[in-house]
Amino acid sequence: MDNFYSLLIIGSLIVLLILQFDIQQRRKVKKVLKQTNDVQPLLMIQSMNQKIDKINRALATSINSSKIETQLRKSTEDYNAGRIDMQLYNKHLNELVKRAEARREPAVAY
């Protein structure tokens, strides 16, 4: 009978230690999530930079591209001012990439 009580006490202590460890881990995870909540997704930022480069390259070889340039400038200003979020800005860039590449002059083969 003494073994039963000692095993019961040891088992209870193990359960308490596990619960305490779980609580500590949850606190750490919440703290990390709070710290990284404002961090913008790096892959989306890289994607947006690539899209802006594509638009600029397409505009350099395009004829009559002032409308696309104006839309790009307006979208960029809105994003930098915080009037639109990153996902909407990314969507605007997608549309501008499609328009800019559609207006691009065909390459002349020699």
Structure, described:
This protein is mostly helical. The chain has 2 domains: 1-39; 42-103. The chain contains 4 helices and no strands. Helix 3 runs antiparallel to helix 4 (86-103). The longest helix is centred in the first third of the chain and has 35 residues, at 2-36. The model has no long low-confidence stretch (mean pLDDT 86).
Give a topology summary:
Layout lengths: L1 H35 L5 H19 L5 H16 L4 H18 L7
Poorly predicted parts: none
Helix content: over 70%
Q: Largest sheet, if any? A: none
- Average pLDDT, all residues: 86
Keywords: Membrane, Transmembrane, Transmembrane helix
Write a brief structural summary:
The chain has four helices and no strands. With 110 residues, it is mainly alpha-helical.
